[in-house]
Design a protein that fits this description.
Layout (H helix, E strand, L loop, with lengths): L14 H29 L3 H36 L2 H37 L7 H29 L2 H14 L18 H9 L5 H9 L12 H14 L7 E7 L5 E7 L2 E3 L2 E7 L3 H8 L2 E8 L4 E11 L2 H10 L2 H9 L9 H15 L9 E15 L7 E7 L5 E6 L2
Antiparallel strand pairs: 1-2, 1-5, 3-4, 4-7, 5-6, 6-7, 7-8, 8-9
Helix pairs in contact: 1-2, 1-4, 2-3, 2-4, 2-5, 2-6, 2-8, 3-4, 6-7, 6-8, 11-12
Length: about 425
Amino acid sequence: MTSLLPDTAPDFSQPIAVLKHCHDRIRKQLSTLEKLLPHLAEHGVDKQARDAAGAVLRYFDKAAHMHHDDEEQDLIPMLRATAQGDDAATLQALAPTIVQDHNEMDALWQDLHEQLRAIEAGTGTMLSSTAVEHFVARYTAHMAREESTLAPMALRLFSLEQMAQLGQAMQRRRGLLAPEAFDQPVASATASATTSAKTAGVGQAVADLRQDYGQASLNEDDVLDDPIAQFTAWFEQALAAQVNEPNAMTLATVGPGNRPSSRIVLIKQFDPRGFTWYTNYDSQKAQELGANNQAALLFFWSELERQIRIEGRVEMTSSEESDHYFRSRPLKSRVAAIASQQSSPIASRAALEANYDAVAQVAGDDPARPANWGGFRLVPERIEFWQGRRSRFHDRIVYQRHPDGSWTRSRLQP
């Protein structure tokens, strides 16, 4: 595939070209990682192997994360503020996938990080070929997706001023410019969330973001027609604002005797089908969902003075989806999922760790997903967006799904 991005040695006046340059550096590190496998088999942990492991570690421990932040905290929010029509629809579908890719690549990196650290120190020779294969494949597909869609969209839509703003944000993230505030956004005068998403990229304090949003409003004319699209917009703004664990949500179920039960779980995917998380199918929440598939989710982002309430029925994800996510998890997390009989009593922490050690000894590099572990998806029937306002006179906009799949929205009194 021919890249649509410039291939010259760029400076930050060409921020999209800088992003492509980052991709090229990632590809070089991925190539080094792949070459390290046969080198270790032939030469062991020699100086060349240790140097190669160190180079890969330094890049993916630091530089790769800055590249992800460039996209999540600046490029995507700026595109959302600018794109219209087909571009906006494409971005709506693609942006959550980009963020999910970043999360899954970070998870895959954790296993490789420990192995490479031991190789760099000369204390280990283990490098999982399966982990390398998955990591390289995921990064390669992810970069191709961005280069064929996000980058050409930005080149086509951004003004010179927007390009300058993006370049400045990237420089500040790398400590190349003083952390001064951004100008007001060009394309979205009504979206204070977009302003915060752009300023978050240069380290603006969360307290300041809260102050900004403390004076925000949520009007019927401001929200999108599709509640999933509205959720996507708010979720991306929470990421940009560096909200603490924006993917954490309260899951409420109903147990025996109609007794409510709740706990925090992490959302792993959301799309028009619903909101997905993963767990042990023998756990308390899974048993309660088996008896009553009606449940509720709650996201609360105090830094932005926002919450989202979601209600609906819950279904299990397909085996293929559960397999795919399970294999994306760090190896130790997979071993823990196999070893733990979630929600069942156990005598001691020592017994729990003994179970883990026993599984780890036989699990290998790529253990299969156990049959009692997988995903749940809440198919929403009601979604309420809550924006905090002064004097407790809050804004509440609720969406209700009809049997034909369409949505209507209305305002509720605080």
